[in-house]
Amino acid sequence: MMLRTPFTQMRSHAGRLVAAAVAIIIATAFVTATAVGANVLERTAYNAISVGYAQADVVVSTTSDAFPSALVEQVRQSVGVSGADGRFTTYLVLEAGHRSDSPLAAPLPSTPALRIEPSRGEHPARPGEVMIADVVAERLGLTVGSTVETPVWDNMSEGDAGPPAERLTVTGLFAHPGAAFDPHIPSVFGTSADVARWAGLPESMYHSILVTAEDGTSSEQLRNTLAPQLRESGGVVRTADEHAAYLTARFTSGAYILAAVLAGLVGVALVVAGMVIANTFTVLVAQRTRELALLRCIGATRRQVRNGVLVEATVLGVVASVAGIAVGVGLAQLAVIGLRSLFDGPWVPRHAEVSVLAVVVPLVVGTAMTVLAARGPARAATRVAPLAALRPSAVQGTGTRTSAARVLVCTGLLGTGGVLLAAGAWITSQASTAAGLALGVLGGAVSFGGVMAGAVVIVPALLAAVARILRRTGGVPAKIAAVNAVRHPRRTASTMVALLIGVTLVTTMSVGAASARATFESELDSHYPVDVVVGPVQSSDSMGELPPGTAAAVSGVEGVETAVPWLATRAHVEGVLTGGNSEPGPPEGDADRGGGLEVDVLGVDPAAVAEVARVELYELRAGTAIVPAWLASEFDLLDGDTLRLSAAGGVVHMRVAIAPDGRGIVVTEEDLTALAPGAPASELWVGLTSDATAAETVRAIQDAVSDVAGGNGAIPVTGAAAQRAEVRSVLDTMLMVVIGLLLVSVLIALIGVGNTLSLSVIERSRESATLRALGMTRRQLRQMLAVEGVLVAVVGAVLGLALGLLYGWLGTLTAFGGVWEVILDVPWLWFAVILGIAVAAGLVASVLPGRRAAKAAPVAALGIR
Question: What is the rounded distance in angstroms from the CA atom of residue 227 to the CA atom of residue 481?
Answer without folding.
Answer: 76
